[in-house]
Design brief:
alpha+beta; 4-stranded mixed β-sheet; 4 strands
Length: 299
């Protein structure tokens, strides 16, 4: 087996060493082609092996179909119609009729006197009309002077910001570092607390005092509305002491936020009316003794 394998390997190496045969290139020239044609008698050297097809010289015409034409119908009337005769119509002459009509009676001539009277009356009427138009009419009927007036174009009014009926007055002796303005839509404890919490959520520097100006119905929020909304227990103390906040305090209000290191402190200021300090102390004492106040302050 090993000898056969060696022989096969040697044969393969010999086949690889054999040079590849190059394709043979045959060149044709015009002279060589002409010689070949003369030698072959001008005919191609190959013969067709197929069978000849014989054609009949006679061309048979296809039988034409005889179309049976319908018999022509003769006209029903064979009599010749006489040609219409032309009659010449001449316009009637009116001469005879005019001669037959009797002559109309001639109009009477207007007398010369009547013509003179008509002319005089016409002249008088014309003169009267002219005098009335130029002299009488202007004196009794004055001409109205017609003046063309055009509407003035008014400038468009721009919507202005709602004007405040009252100006805000701060109760601080020295102005605060910051100031913020807010609008309260309704006297509600929830809305008022959310407004104050929103302002307290704004990050500010430590030891900064911010003044909050609250508006209600285009006016600065009064001390009475603020105090009764933030602490509803005040109304019970007013009934117990038979007093009102309007009798004890001025309406000005100032609300502040102080940003301390540990907490943010809310403060609201009001003015006590003259000679009302004792009544205010009674009101505060009654308010502190109210058990519901602790619940409100905790909430």
């Amino acid at each position: 087996m090993e000898e056969k394998n060696l022989e096969n390997q040697q044969k393969g190496q010999e086949e690889e060493k054999k040079p590849e045969e190059k394709p043979r290139i045959v060149y044709h020239t015009l002279e060589s082609d002409l010689k070949e044609l003369k030698e072959s008698g001008g005919q191609p050297e190959f013969e067709s092996k197929g069978k000849k097809i014989e054609f009949d010289n006679e061309i048979k015409e296809a039988p034409q179909e005889v179309s049976e034409e319908a018999p022509k119908k003769e006209p029903a009337f064979l009599e010749e119609m006489p040609e219409p005769k032309m009659e010449v119509i001449s316009p009637p002459s009116f001469k005879e009729k005019e001669e037959e009509k009797p002559l109309a009676p001639s109009k009477k001539k207007i007398s010369s006197k009547l013509l003179i009277i008509i002319l005089i009356l016409g002249g008088v009427l014309i003169l009267g009309g002219l005098l009335g138009y130029f002299f009488v009419y202007p004196n009794y009927f004055k001409k109205e002077e017609i003046s063309e007036t055009f509407p003035k174009e008014e400038p468009e009014e721009k919507p202005s910001a709602p004007s405040l009926e009252e100006e805000y007055v701060s109760l601080l002796v020295s102005p605060a570092n910051l100031r913020s303005e807010e609008e309260l839509s309704a006297l509600s404890l929830i809305l008022l607390r959310s407004l104050l919490e929103k302002e307290a959520g704004v990050v500010e520097e430590i030891e900064t005092l911010k003044e909050i100006v609250i508006y209600y119905q285009n006016r600065p929020l009064s001390f009475y509305d603020f105090f009764r909304t933030i602490l509803p227990e005040v109304m019970a103390s007013e009934q117990n002491l038979d007093l009102t906040l309007e009798e004890l305090f001025e309406k000005q209000l100032t609300v502040t936020l102080f940003y301390g290191e540990k907490a943010i402190q809310l403060a609201y200021l009001g003015l006590i009316k003259p000679q009302k300090k004792a009544e205010v102390e009674k009101l505060v004492r009654d308010l502190i003794e109210n058990p519901n106040l602790k619940i409100s302050l905790k909430n």
